[in-house]
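note to self — DONT lose this again. spent like an hour looking for the file last time. sequence + predicted structure for the chain T wanted, 279 res
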Amino acid sequence: MSEPTKKHVVLVGCGNVGGFAGDHIMRLENVGQLSVCDDDVYEEKNLRSQNIVPADVGRPKAVVQADRLHRINPHVGVTAYADSIENVPLGCLEDADVILAAVDSKRARQVINQIAKRLNVPWIDSGVEADRLLARVAVYYPGQEDPCIECNWSSVQYEDLETTYPCNPDAGVPAATNAPSSLGALCGSLLALECGKVISGDTRHDGKGYEIFLEADYYNLYPTTLRFNPECRVPEHRLGAIKPPGGFETRSIDTTSVSYTHLRAHETNDLISYAVFCL
């Protein structure tokens, strides 16, 4: 019997949730490549809530996690993009099998939704709310009539696109999630579990989008089936996946002697400009 095809997982965000999710993703049997993307650096205040050690403070989050995850499983290739996901050329991601989002704003989620639609791959969103010890994951499939994250957005959500919800509070920024590391680890585990289902071809949800809320305060679980909105603003619902006949452009990436690469996306020649944000 031939071995199953190894999958390429893209993880966007290395904070309270993403920093813990990577540990489990690297241990999934059918994962062969992990791309890690985050444009931020670790700060001292992150030590209490994120999966790091003091020596990681001041270093790019994507690079820190790539180094650490490579040590967990050196047989899985790890690529670090120390930049925002919209600056990563689509050619670097076109062989992706799933995108995992552990980000802190609706704008970032909107961009990831667009990228997943263009690449015709599923993506899984995640988030936490510290007050109720709430962890959330949502699975979106790329079909034209499959629900996407914007299908249930109102004008209020579009007005709130630029608001970020960091894991630690700062003066002059919106309220932080204040999520403890244990909640991030719980949500990261849920994210990895759903990733495993998606890349293994699990059919229990019949290929339909769904969302799971876990309220750890009282151990309540709320699964929900997502619904397609024919009035959704996302143009790919009408146009389908948008992919050039020859594939997306990228330049070759030189790798080091180990199986992971540290790459800043802006160092590539062919940047993809996202002029349309699903409006």
